[in-house]
Specification:
Radius of gyration: 23 Å
Structural class: alpha+beta
Number of strands: 18
Number of helices: 12
Distance between the termini: 34 Å
């Protein structure tokens, strides 16, 4: 089976690839030579029928930021040597082409003027690069030195493809697969659904197994045909994004033992359940951010901590299992400084106070049931409330998103599971939580104002419960 492809003669990125930096690389990367071997547009194996050519976006899809979700999967040298290079590339291209037949809008083009996707089969962008240098020593053993370089990619210019992929092959046999997804069509659940489906098809090709229809993921597109879009609230514009030039990203490493200790000190018998590792890490970072705000304003301010929550599980009757698009709500925990009585305007709350607020907000968000007719109005109202709080500036708003427990560490294209997964931060102040290898730890990617980050990093809680990322052991190679 030959995939439908189209070769590209010129790079479509202002930056040519995920691990090549065009301007004055730091000493760590100065000896890393990256060569683009090929650029192609991979098209669906089967042409999209005319009646599916137009995909109308949902009201929630339309108001997403014009940014791209980006994730990188790192595979060790040993598994990278398990297959000939040409065979590996051919298998990836063919399986991607087959997968796009089911995920056909991803090979189309977004039409901003009409808020729709032209499912014209132009293809997904697929780069192959050769990197001179060992992945284990140059990249994985010194992760922090590459965060700033990787962060610039999220703020780069956007190409017309909805999805861009790059396979970077190192001399040692290690591999890095980088992906960028347009937020106009994807949330994290959708992105991981696509990657999981593609990986399954790729590994079945390697094993020469026939993939039966009932074993495949068949996504459902076009939520506007399932969910009513009447009587929607007026959309409040999102406040301007903070450019990454004014921010810095730090990677905080919480190992399993430190998280267990955090759970122990932050639990209260009055809680309806024990706190999760995501909740205690979020509370610790929230409290450290409050300390920075207090130093900046001279008093303790009220604040919100928001977490993205997959909204699919709350909809009644349930949606099809692989519903595609942006179906994410916000669980918002509110700390109100004025309600603290005689304890003063400057004293930070105990960690368990913030944990309790997070447990309450996240539990309510996950347990509520919303009828289909209320899905879009509810999501838009939640979005408006957050934007209004940011715009007024009367409270501090701290955004969190968690990829913990998503099966991203299980994505196997036929050469084993990734030894590390990293995100490219979005161009606004936010904290992203990721699983550590093994699943009991957390890596927190904190994006913060450059001037305020040093004070944040000196917070006693951050110092006590994180492993300095330069000392943290690299993933097993």
């Amino acid at each position: 089976m030959i995939p439908r492809t189209e070769k590209l003669s010129v790079p479509l990125f202002p930056f040519p690839n995920f691990l090549c930096f065009s301007s004055s690389p730091p000493p760590l990367l100065s000896e890393m030579e990256v060569k683009i071997l090929s650029r192609k547009l991979i098209k669906p194996y089967v042409l999209t029928p005319p009646h599916l050519r137009t995909l109308k976006q949902s009201p929630v899809d339309r108001v997403q930021n014009s940014v791209k979700l980006a994730v990188l999967l790192y595979y060790s040298a040993e598994v990278g040597k398990s297959e000939e290079v040409e065979g590996r590339i051919k298998r990836l291209e063919t399986s991607l082409s087959e997968t796009l037949t089911r995920f056909y809008p991803l090979a189309g083009r977004y039409v901003e003027e009409g808020n729709w996707v032209d499912c014209n089969d132009e293809g997904v962008e697929f780069f192959v690069a050769k990197v001179k240098g060992p992945l284990s020593q140059v990249i994985l053993s010194r992760k922090d030195e590459i965060i700033d370089q990787l962060s610039h990619l999220a703020n780069g210019g956007f190409t017309s493809p909805i999805v861009s992929i790059q396979l970077s092959m190192f001399d040692c046999g290690g591999l890095v697969m980088g992906f960028r997804f347009s937020h106009h069509l994807f949330d994290a659940f959708s992105a991981i659904t696509f990657l999981t489906s593609w990986a399954s098809t790729a590994i079945n090709r390697q094993r020469k197994c026939i993939e039966h229809d009932d074993e495949m993921i068949w996504p459902t597109f076009g939520m506007t045909s399932i969910l009513p879009a009447d009587d929607l609230p007026k959309i409040k514009p999102m406040p301007p994004l903070v450019g990454l030039d004014n921010t810095v990203i730090k990677r905080l490493v919480f190992d399993g033992a430190k998280i267990s200790a955090l759970k122990e000190i932050s639990h209260d018998p009055s809680f309806p359940r024990k706190p999760s590792r995501v909740e205690v890490v979020t509370a610790l970072i929230w409290r450290a951010r409050m300390r920075v705000s207090r130093a900046k304003h001279g008093r303790l301010r009220s604040s919100l901590a928001t977490h993205s929550v997959n909204f699919r599980q709350t909809i009644d009757p349930p949606l099809p299992p692989w519903s595609f698009g942006n179906l994410v709500s916000k669980a918002t925990a509110r700390f109100v400084a004025a309600e603290r009585g005689g304890r003063g305007d400057t004293e930070l709350p105990e960690l368990k106070v913030l944990v309790g607020l997070l447990i309450d907000s996240i539990t309510k968000s996950k347990n509520r049931k919303v009828g289909r007719e209320d899905v879009f109005p509810t999501l838009l109202r939640t979005r408006n409330e957050l934007h209004e709080a940011v715009e007024k500036g009367e409270v501090d708003v701290y955004r969190f998103t968690s990829w913990c427990n998503f099966p991203v560490h299980q994505i196997d294209f036929g050469w084993g599971r990734p030894v590390w997964v990293s995100r490219i931060p979005l161009p606004y102040v936010c904290t992203t939580l990721m699983d550590r290898e093994g699943g009991d730890g957390i890596e927190a990617w904190v994006c913060f104002n450059k001037q305020e980050m040093p004070l944040f990093m000196r917070d006693e809680g951050i110092l006590a419960f994180t492993t300095n990322s330069k000392e943290a052991p690299a993933p097993r190679m």
